[in-house]
């Protein structure tokens, strides 16, 4: 007889099949075909049957655990029927989570599994620990520190559903004003899709000998740093939902207007200082309301190139800040280094400027999970954790940003 965990894994497979059918139809902008409808209905029936079997099996497992429980067990067990306080339940979830990381879901009690298992048979990271990881990400990334962030619970969001607001002077009830809708008359079905970010951590036996406090610190530091590096690249040069990635603000898919540079690579005689003029033009190509909170983003090599420019008297045309902890400013605006932005070369997008908080948004979907791979690396004395974080990013106001693009060489 399959366990409740195995049944949940079967049900998760059915859910993925259902999602694949609907996503295919949505991507092709059509309804379900007759064959797809038949398959969809069959999977829905399977989902209902598996749900009933899971409920029956879990009741059996709970009864078996109750009979096996020693007499005199205290009332501070992980699931006390909802009588515990929020603090007690939070502690219980953390305890079940760390135990699950060490031994896997299959060896948890039904009460512990109920606290941390999702429908796909994965271990849910406790909400407070997930929040700590997300809070630490802006300190490790460039884009999150510049962009706006929003937590959501769905798989996708309509891109412009809450981005534009119309305002006007006077009282509406006396017809003293007419509001102009800032949305197009027939807005396109533009969606931003949440993507899956996966990571693999191999943890040695020594780490498992540590206390939960040390394991907690290891998870926060390791998870956050790994996610931060992958996110920063994707938010900058990600190629979009077709490739299961966020939309990067430096890509054509982001729709940010470009300003053409005056040189392909600024390598010609006397061309180098022209980069300063091009960056100044980039500022004034951005609408005034977005210049107020504007900042530059470019690779470190491009900043170095600027910092080495000299006038006819050998004086540097610009020098970065020499004060520790203070960000560099260029032409009065903060300058951020993002190493995934292209270096100076022909036909490249080498810098961006604008109000990134208004122009780019990061969406975090709650529900970070871990799957324990307790057999795959056993011979090496390690346990694997497959981490899944659901997140995406997209350009929400292209007009708030501008990109400096070099022409083709030759």
Automatic annotation (TrEMBL):
Region called Disordered, residue ranges: 22-90
Alphabetized InterPro entries for the sequence: Phage_capsid, Phage_capsid-like_C
Name of this chain's protein: Phage major capsid protein
Bias (Basic and acidic residues) ranges: 24-66, 74-90
Signal peptide: none
Domain Phage capsid-like C-terminal: start-end pairs: 121-404
UniProt subcellular location: Virion
Source domain of life: Bacteria
